[in-house]
Design goal:
Distance between the termini: 37 Å
Number of domains: 1
Structural class: alpha+beta
Number of helices: 7
Helix content: 25-40%
Order of helices and strands: HHEHEHHHEEEEEH
Amino acid sequence: MGLITRTLKLTTYTGLASVGAFFVYTRNDRFEPMTATDAIFNHPLYHKFNPDKNPTTYDLCIRRVPLSQINPTLLEKKGKLVEAFCAGVWSGWGYAFQRSYLSRKYESPENSSHLWSNQQLSSSTYDIGTIVTDHFEVVEKTPERIVVRCGDSPRRQGVRASDGLFEISAVVKPDEGVAEFGLKSCFYQGLGKAEGEPMPPHIVWLHQQYTKLMAETALGKVLR
């Protein structure tokens, strides 16, 4: 979890002019409870790559936006809204530091098919098999959600010491007049029996702030 820790600390505290401004900027992002019946805990890859049923660090961040503020072209066809939101997550400046770090450390001719540039991240439709910066691989895609495996390089396809699933969702709720955007995370230790959760409380808090930042900066791709 070293990369996650460094990214959280640097992105959270250097991305905005002040802590106060950050909390104003992300005031509409809310964390909602998750239960054992949540789809992410019943995902085939979760069971396959967490063979010892190790404890998880997880959260669900929700951001609701009035449909009147959404780019109407993204509402014409199912699936376009979640593609745009996903593109915003990875091409937004909330992910910029982590993207830059991974590019410097891992980008090479051997993984040139991965998404590295801001333009690639902004224009991709994130089909299954798409790999983002040698660290996130799309493993599921529906008209409302895109799930990526994270925690280590996709070059390591087996059980990993550090592993997880990250779900990006966009659900249109016409009866309520809103689009509901979600970022859901689930991290766990895959190799060996863990003694506790993979993140201590202060890193969990930092991760939540980073999640809010990514959600908020991603909205630029979906608003009018």
